[in-house]
């Protein structure tokens, strides 16, 4: 089993996490903000881009259950996401960092349909880890340019 584990401690690292998490899907109920611990934890179904982009033509692709963790979170704001609808599905487009007073800033998790999470952080401290075996999916995410 080729599980992936990554840590991001700066903006460049966060861009790598963003690339691996693009097109991940999750439900609103998969978001857990632990304010007292300054943590945000998400469980996502990650599309395995590192296999899909190997230049070979695939008949099937893979997804993996993946944990995403952000530390040093001072506050969390949501746009277009309603906790009253825990089964709503979110699709990750990108994760980006906006510096305020280095190393502090905002981490934005941008989802399809104009939805987003904005984390105010003391510094970038993010981790992602695949949790188990992959499962097959026939569809590869595509984006109109």
Topology:
Blueprint: E1 5-8, H1 11-21, E2 25-27, E3 31-34, E4 39-47, H2 49-52, E5 61-70, E6 73-79, E7 89-99, E8 105-111, E9 115-121, E10 126-130, E11 135-137
Antiparallel strand pairs: 1-10, 2-7, 3-4, 4-5, 5-10, 5-11, 6-9, 7-8, 8-9
Descriptive overview:
- By secondary structure, the chain is mainly β.
- It has one domain.
- Helix content is 10%, strand content 48%.
- Strands 1, 3, 4, 5, 10 and 11 form a 6-stranded antiparallel sheet that branches.
- A hairpin with a 4-residue loop joins strand 3 and strand 4 (39-47).
- The longest helix has 11 residues, at 11-21.
- The chain starts with a strand and ends in an 8-residue tail after the last strand.
- The model has no long low-confidence stretch (mean pLDDT 93).
- InterPro entries: DUF2948 (IPR021335).
- Pfam families: DUF2948.
- This is DUF2948 family protein.
